[in-house]
Specification:
219 residues, alpha+beta, nine-stranded mixed sheet, two-stranded antiparallel ribbon
């Protein structure tokens, strides 16, 4: 990616050149990370038939749920499982649920990235933070407000739960949870990416909690 520069002036009138990316940083999307934990007692069931159902009866039959269920369906097919033409005859029951909370406010105090200050003795960059005010763990720019180095935004927690049971006796074979913090509450973006995270290196190591990077939303 080519980085352009533009001329800006500090408070003393001294000309500075700053990357254009800095000036438009608020518009840049940042990947969020999904934390995934899976518990596995899954024998070699590849090739068995399955059906995807809603764990929450309120979601069953909904068009939105159906859209996300098709993603899980395709992932199972990619792994070598077979979609059951007769739901009652399915050998495996894949149940899924998803939810997003109402969000909580997060307040961050950072120095102004555009102007040097006496306190910091010039331009500030915190180790691991680009331009001093970039949070690497939160996707998006929704709900942002702030002034003079203090900013606040709403943080949402989105969770995807998935279970696989043997149909004949109800034995639990797999439990998984994918969770992400973000500044977006767009489920049509978040849930598909949590599905992607859930099936990354599926079924995973039982009890292991891993962090998987999710691509930023395209604007």
């Amino acid at each position: 990616m080519t980085i352009l520069a533009t001329q800006v002036f500090n408070r003393k009138g001294i000309s500075l050149f700053a990357p254009l990316a800095l000036l438009s940083l608020a518009a840049c999307a940042t990947p969020f990370r999904a934390d995934v934990q899976r518990f596995v007692a899954l024998p070699d069931t590849t090739g068995q038939s399955f059906i995807v159902v809603a764990a929450d009866p309120d979601l069953s039959g909904g068009l939105e749920f159906g859209q996300y269920a098709m993603l899980v369906d395709q992932k199972m097919l990619d792994l070598g499982y077979r979609r059951s033409d007769d739901p009652a005859a399915a050998e495996l029951i894949v149940s899924m649920d998803y939810e997003i909370d109402k969000g909580r406010e997060k307040v961050v105090a950072d120095p102004d990235p555009f102007y040097p200050s006496a306190r910091f003795g010039g331009y500030y960059r915190r180790p691991g933070y680009r331009y001093g005010f970039h949070d690497p763990f939160l996707y998006g720019g929704y709900g942002f407000s702030g002034y003079d180095g203090v900013r606040s935004f709403t943080v949402y927690t989105t969770e995807l739960d998935m279970k696989i049971d043997r149909a004949v006796d109800g034995e639990r074979l797999f439990e998984g949870k994918a969770e992400a913090l973000s500044r977006s509450k767009n489920l049509t973006y978040l849930v598909p990416n949590l599905v992607e995270a859930m099936f990354t290196d599926f079924p995973g190591n039982s009890g292991e909690r891993v962090r998987i990077s999710i691509a930023p939303e395209k604007k």
